[in-house]
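Q: For a teaching session next week I want to show students how multiple molecules come together into a single three-dimensional assembly. I've collected the sequence lines for a complex. Could you give me the predicted structure tokens for the whole thing so I can convert them for display?
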Amino acid sequence: MSLNLERNSKWMEGSGPQADIVISSRIRLARNLKGMPFPNLMNEAQEVKVIRQVGQAIRAPGVFQAVGELRLQTLRELSPVERQILVEKHLISPDLAEGKGEKAVVLRDDEAISIMVNEEDHLRLQCLLPALMLHEAWRLADAADDALENELDFAFDQERGYLTACPTNVGTGLRASTMLHLPALVLTKQAGQVLTALTKVGVAVRGLYGEGTEAQGNIFQVSNQITLGRSEEEIINNLSAVTVRLADQEREARELLRKQNRWQLEDRVGRAYGILTNARILSSQEALQLLSDVRLGVEMKILRGLDQRLINQLMVRIQPAYLQFTAGKEMTPFERDVRRAAMVRELLAG
Amino acid sequence: MLCERCQERPASVHVTRIINGDKTELYLCQECAREMQPQLNFSIPKFLAGLLDYEPGLEVKAPPAGERCRECGLSYEQFHQTGRLGCPDCYHYLAARLDPLIRRIQGSSQHRGKVPRRAGGNLRVRREIERLRAQLQQLVEQEEFEKAAQVRDRIRDLENRLGEQGGGQ
Ligand SMILES: [Zn+2]
Ligand SMILES: [Zn+2]
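A: Of course. Below is the structure for the complete assembly, covering every listed component.
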């Protein structure tokens, strides 16, 4: 296996504009090949053909010049745990990891670029960067898309734009999203209200781990709803503006907490840190909630000597597949809880 | 009329579902209606497809026509069930029913974003001409005739280029 699953992804760096609240920015482009059914109707031979064509395209000199070296990995060659790690690092979707048939993922070394092959569309090109860097992520995705388009014939229609398996993606095929940590909005009970308001300006909101579920660790993902009739820049500008506005709202809520509930706030952060550095058994849900409190402490400079990068790494490392991978064996949920606690203690003390 | 679900038995039940304030109507046979009962829950593709029934000016009471994509064979009814199209050509062959749906979901039916260099060489030129025409209009209104003349010449150049290439795709 050519993947180095233990390395940190670019998005975990934890630095950049609005990094105190915005964890990462992602651009996804849906692209399909002309003259080929969409993945839901493809047979195995066609799936293999698409993977082969993408594999050839990424080795073209033009692609290398545009975005550097990309490597293709078929999912068949990965164990279930290895696939799950790619999900936990937000590099592929659960659908791609669990799906039947011939599928592949293309990765750049720093994991800032990933391409899912044979997910809902033939190609789902993703660029994932830390903090609020949507424009940078778009420039990278655009460059990769241009270079790939030199090698592959994408299905495109003058009226309808890029043609996709689901009409909700047609047009630009662009889904831009940002991941935000909004604990103060949740604590001050404003989150629901603020996030509902967003849906009225063409922005969709969901909790990070699973659609429709409660946001775990107070992390929310916001993304554009419309993909047709607006240019990529308009979509990205709108989402950037919404993200900045949300971050401002969160900062206001934090200042309010600092003024009105300073001791409760510092107590909460301190207790979270105390539990994380002393617990012997930690479920992933508890760990995520405590990490959210510690992150808030770091972001509000209540806790010193810790940085966002470490918290981002911990958020990935506490996940079930990653834990089992680094342990080198399958574990029961209880064994995982014990190992998770040990790992968190060690990294936070380090 | 046949049942919209199984396409086999005659439809005898008219089911109206209201999900988040949006109404979906289905014509089902007795058996399918019974089977559907417990799973009348929310599904995004169906929800989207259901929006079509609300398109003003569309005759929703008519039974689904049997159009199919001539490339992959997908019928509109199959799309209605899964929310997924079969191939890029579905957009062409199922356009009569898809386009209103797309307008409904997206609020627009005209792509204004990126155009691939290869597939859209002429389209790129046409977009530029559109932009210049708007500019020309503005310049004329502002009585900036000298600048307007330059823009007009640029438009002619571009139009000639399109003409030489045959003006087609
Ligand atoms: Zn039936
Ligand atoms: Zn088709």
